[in-house]
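hiii, so i know i said id send this last week but things got crazy w the move. better late than never?? heres the sequnce for the chain we talked about at the cafe, plus the structure i predicted for it. fair warning i was half asleep when i ran it
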Amino acid sequence: MTNRLAKETSPYLLQHKDNPVDWYPWGNEAFARARSEDKPVLLSVGYAACHWCHVMEHESFEDGETAALMNESFVNVKVDREERPDVDSLYMNAVQAMTGQGGWPMTVFLTPEGAPFYGGTYFPRHDRAGLPSFKRILRAVSDTWQQQRAELRDQGHRLVEHIRDMTRFEPATGDIDDGVLEAAFERLNAAFDPAYGGFGGAPKFPQPMTVDLLLRLARRGFPGALEMAQRTLDAMASGGMFDQLGGGFHRYSVDRTWTVPHFEKMLYDNAQLLRTYARSWLVTGTPRHREVAEATASWMLREMRDPAGGLWSSLDADSEGVEGKFYVWDLDEVRDAAGEDADAAIEAFGMTREGNFEGLNIPVFVERPVEPASLDRARAALLARRGQRERPGTDTKVLAGWNALAAAALAEAGAMLGRPEWVEAARSIAGFIATELRVDGRLMRSYRDGGVRALACSDDYAFFLEACLVLFETTFDASWLDEARWAADESIRLFLDDGEGGFFTTGSDAEELLLRPKDLFDNAVPSGNSVLALQLQRMSALTGTASYADHAAGAMRVALRAAGQSPTGFGALLEAVDFHTSRPREIVIVGDPRRADTRSLVDEVRGRFLPNKVMVVSGGDGAPSLPLLEGRGGGNGATAYVCEAGVCKLPVTSAEELAAQLDAS
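okay and structure toks below
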């Protein structure tokens, strides 16, 4: 017998449809029952690629005795955090306030009105290592609800007020200057691991936003910023966190050296890291960074494409019930698969008889002289053998925000590295969002098998705005600027906080939760606030609409004080500050982009890392109506105009002249 989750589209929820637990999806039906029966709600939040979510399901949710306790005393609600980030954010704040830590699986007990009064993360089947068993928790919460219901309701009310205070930042006043960047760099420098790159000790997360910030600060002349970025990218690319055979990055490293990963692969990590490695290649010319970018893009487009369009969300860490089994090797299998080329693989991937992971080998990158053709054959042979193994589970939902992030990354990296097929893939993905995930003029968050779920949040709109702006700059198609304007205007209409500035997570038309969340921290993905803070500045520079820049400044001010103190939590916001406190360039190229003279000017711009700029290429036909184009016509050949801070340089017609203007400080 299946439960109510059988009607959902989320693969994570569908994984639980055969549990003996009487699960409800999040919604009015569950809370109406809780109120009518005066029962607490047991809220369980996780996601498809979460290893410990699978463990807790097998230990507890598939267990008949545990399910009976849950069904008797609670109304049980299961949520996919990737589908409902608003619900996840609200109750994660509650768990962190109660326990001092958070994570998934997340278990929260709520009053029938939705107020949290007790919670935690993973609870084991049996008492162990100071953790009470899940059944012990269930009995204790049920007994307390029966005996002290009023106290629990009061506790829930107080906790909601505490969360309200905890998540409110005092907006900064006055000018936004680059002092916050200096403060942030000091703290990044103090936290940097000079031996292995990254920040802090184990576990280590990739933090592409922080590395992107360092690349920007290096342009400003911050000493050591570029070395910190390159050391981090080199180390990540050499470790087991990067899939040396198939491309793409795992979620994070459990150790300081980036050797042993947590093996899940997330679309959002790989989209951001693709872009970061491409940017670094543009800055440093490091061949390995280009190789990693190309392998990451290839993995995304090879293994994560949905037949209908768009990209899937993640790959599990587990296969055959064992974390990492799909990715690890013993030497005998390597020799059997690669034959005469096995020695090349063993050398290049640092393999030993003892292994580096529970007696087996996670391939790492060792710069030893290996014959390239032999290594290529060995890699192909190992990939073919790996393809015969049971694959990790795939979360096949298509998320609007993550796909827009991937589209922006593919388009930008494709332009940088001269890979037009990536730009075309980006165009296709963004087009899929615009058609399949926009319903009656409203973006939706999740698509799977023709069905959509959940209203899109501010980050979905923000990432779509970013993707459209990147596509406008890379394809010269004015329709993407029209889409960008729509996304910017809708972001302001649906999410703007008129009182304190910044943007709420949920729209004004969305379901009303206990609190209307406003995500400010840049976690695994940038917050909607941070992305809008940057992209609305770009919209203002392109269109001349000052109100876009005003709203961007409001978003920066909300978290400005915290950003300087905790830079790894606000990497993307600090990128917006970098744009705001620089002299962004306005580059206009007038000419037919199909002609060689126009392309040479475009390539001159694309051949350097210029994060604080907007670029318009207008060939005449279907040109956008923009103030930047007024009075700027081409002569017999292509012409480039470079302006900054209201001052324009003389128009130029050759790539050499344009290079001189772009390289001038």
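btw The longest helix spans residues 546-565. thought thatd interest u
miss u guys!!
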